[in-house]
Write a structure and sequence with these properties.
Layout lengths: L1 H47 L5 E10 L11 E5 L11 H4 L3 E9 L10 E9 L7 E10 L4 E10 L6 E10 L5 E12 L3 E12 L3
Antiparallel strand pairs: 1-3, 1-9, 2-3, 3-4, 4-5, 5-6, 6-7, 7-8, 8-9
Length: 207
């Protein structure tokens, strides 16, 4: 009688093992499918995030003090290497010169247009073999369209047609802004005036 009962229980045990195996396999497959779907969804969201949430276009006008134009200069040399001075940009591609500026910002390339804000900061020339500078400045806007500030920093290789620097923060309408600003030289007059066209693409916008 005992042996007969054991023979009857064996098929039932085998069936239960097969059932449990298939159940676990189904759960594992569903979990893998959900994880794969979640990863795919994340990739789709990441691709969508590269679209700018806000764009701006404006011009920055810089008039460098040359020893005779203090009445309308918007920038001045505040530091220079031993072989240069603080009035005229030095030799060797202006290497070592540090310039502080407070430049008007306009919506078109006309220096005499009504400013929509001011760019305040500094740039320094940091190579001897080619014209290149490093910028750190804040654009302060106070117009009917925009109020607040945007902070910029990055290298500016002047011989390139376009140069990208980082947007590293902001206030007001640009609170905690992040993005990229593309600089394009729009005009140069000797070493006393230059105009830069700036295109800003923000990828983090809180407002």
């Amino acid at each position: 009688m005992v042996m007969s009962s054991s023979r009857q229980l064996f098929p039932i045990s085998l069936f239960l093992m097969i059932f449990l195996f298939h159940g676990l396999h189904s759960i594992s497959s569903a979990s893998h499918h959900h994880h794969h779907h979640h990863q795919h969804k994340h990739r789709v969201l990441t691709k969508k995030a590269i679209t700018p949430c806000k764009t701006l276009s404006f011009y920055l006008h810089d008039i460098l003090y040359d020893g005779h134009n203090s009445h309308n200069a918007t920038s001045a040399i505040v530091g220079a290497p031993a072989w240069a001075n603080r009035t005229v940009l030095g030799a060797q591609d202006f290497f070592g010169d540090v310039i502080v500026f407070n430049d008007p910002i306009t919506l078109d390339n006309n220096l005499h247009s009504e400013p929509v804000g001011w760019a305040q900061g500094f740039y320094l020339y940091d190579r001897k073999d080619v014209f290149t500078a490093w910028f750190a400045f804040t654009c302060s806007f106070n117009s009917t369209k925009h109020r607040g500030t945007i902070n910029f920093a990055g290298a500016d290789p002047l011989m390139n047609k376009t140069r990208d620097i980082s947007v590293i923060g902001g206030t007001g309408d640009f609170f905690m802004a992040r993005g990229v600003a593309t600089l394009m030289t729009d005009a140069v007059e000797l070493f006393s005036y230059f105009r830069i066209h700036i295109l800003v693409n923000l990828y983090e916008c809180w407002k």
